[in-house]
């Protein structure tokens, strides 16, 4: 059986590929568990400064949770469905959202259900002009379960999100751009190079500063502003004794490009 997640690291960037193309990269439990293990690996690998997440094959980023599999958990009753399906999927999107290195989705095709929820959860996203998004869970008689009722309204606003959640209608990459779900739309053949170029523009900076910004923004968004400002202050305080801050400031004073460890 082929690995449900492919990992290929070069120039500080981990390319992570959801790899079930014959099932439109549907997120079965084995794929989610393997993705979590790969995230553990690359988070502690100093050679990796950023990750790009994409889908194998010509058609899909991901068509969402594996309906054949999770329907079995649903048949086993509420406790099993929550434990095996909902908690697993929520843990995956929460892990991506809180990752200390930037994660960029390169949405190469269908991003339905859980595929859309991954796009909502990651830090940045670039869509191919062939991408297609949807929140189709309503067609199955259920609300989204991997964070889709929570993150999309925060990104797009309540009414825009509710229209997509309540109709289940597919939407274009241009609409995804308008509502803040993706950062840009590029021609299909330029997708991975655009994602790499964005990653490179981030990883030339201090990894500590990048991690501090990711943490402050992600945690702060779900807090009152006074608590968010406290997180911002803590992230800065953690950098004060670090070499990178001294190097960044000295480089500015000396009118040169900073040299950070690992860059
Ligand atoms: N779970 C499990 N298998 C899935 C899947 C999913 N979410 N989405 C697609 N697949 C499988 C299909 O069963 C099919 O497998 P098969 O060839 O062994 O029968 C294969 O992927 C190709 O999908 P298919 O439905 O034949 O392609 P299509 O072009 O006709 O339709 C979709 C594409 C995305 C519209 C359709 O696959 C679909 O509605 N998928 C479910 C999307 C969804 O509701 N996701 C949210 C789940 S909570």
Short description:
With 263 residues, the protein is an alpha/beta fold.
Descriptive overview:
- The longest helix has 20 residues.
- It is globular and about 65 Å long.
- The strands form two sheets. It has a six-stranded mixed β-sheet with strand order 1-2-3-5-7-9, sandwiched between helices. Strands 4-6-8 form a three-stranded parallel β-sheet.
- The protein has two domains: 199 residues, 2-enoyl-CoA Hydratase, Chain A, domain 1, CATH 3.90.226.10; 47 residues.
- The model has no long low-confidence stretch (mean pLDDT 97).
- Helices cover 49% and strands 15% of the residues.
- The protein contains eleven helices and nine strands.
- It binds coenzyme A.
- The site of coenzyme A has 15 residues, from helix 2 and strand 6.
Protein topology:
Layout: E1 5-10, E2 13-18, H1 29-43, E3 50-55, E4 60-62, H2 67-75, H3 78-97, E5 103-107, E6 110-112, H4 114-121, E7 124-128, E8 132-134, H5 151-156, H6 158-167, H7 173-178, E9 184-186, H8 191-203, H9 207-221, H10 225-239, H11 243-253
Parallel strand pairs: 2-3, 3-5, 4-6, 5-7, 6-8, 7-9
Antiparallel strand pairs: 1-2
The structure holds coenzyme A.
Residues 23-24, 26, 63-68, 110, 112-113, 136-137, 140 line the site of coenzyme A.
């Amino acid at each position: 059986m082929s690995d449900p997640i492919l990992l290929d690291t070069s120039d500080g960037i981990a390319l992570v590929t959801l790899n079930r193309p014959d099932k439109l990269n549907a997120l079965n439990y084995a794929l989610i568990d393997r993705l979590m293990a790969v995230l553990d690996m690359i988070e502690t690998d100093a050679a990796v400064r950023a990750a790009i997440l994409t889908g194998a094959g010509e058609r899909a980023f991901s068509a969402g949770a594996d309906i054949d599999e999770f329907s079995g958990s649903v048949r086993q009753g509420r406790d099993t469905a929550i434990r095996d399906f909902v908690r697993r999927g929520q843990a995956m999107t929460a892990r991506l959202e809180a990752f200390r290195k930037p994660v960029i989705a390169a949405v190469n095709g269908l991003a339905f259900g859980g595929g859309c929820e991954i796009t909502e959860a990651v830090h940045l996203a670039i869509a191919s002009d062939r991408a297609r998004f949807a929140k189709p869970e309503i067609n199955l008689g259920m609300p989204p379960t991997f964070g889709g009722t929570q993150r999309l309204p925060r990104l797009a606003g309540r009414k825009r999100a509710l229209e997509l959640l309540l109709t289940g209608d597919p939407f274009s990459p241009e609409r995804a751009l308008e509502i803040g779900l993706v950062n840009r739309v590029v021609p299909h053949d330029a997708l991975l190079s655009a994602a790499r170029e964005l990653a490179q523009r981030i990883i030339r900076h201090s990894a500590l500063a990048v991690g501090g910004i990711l943490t402050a923004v992600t945690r702060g968004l779900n807090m009152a502003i006074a608590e968010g400002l406290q997180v911002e202050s803590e992230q800065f305080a953690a950098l004060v004794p670090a070499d990178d801050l001294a190097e960044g400031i000295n480089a500015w004073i000396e009118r040169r490009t900073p040299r950070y460890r690992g860059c």
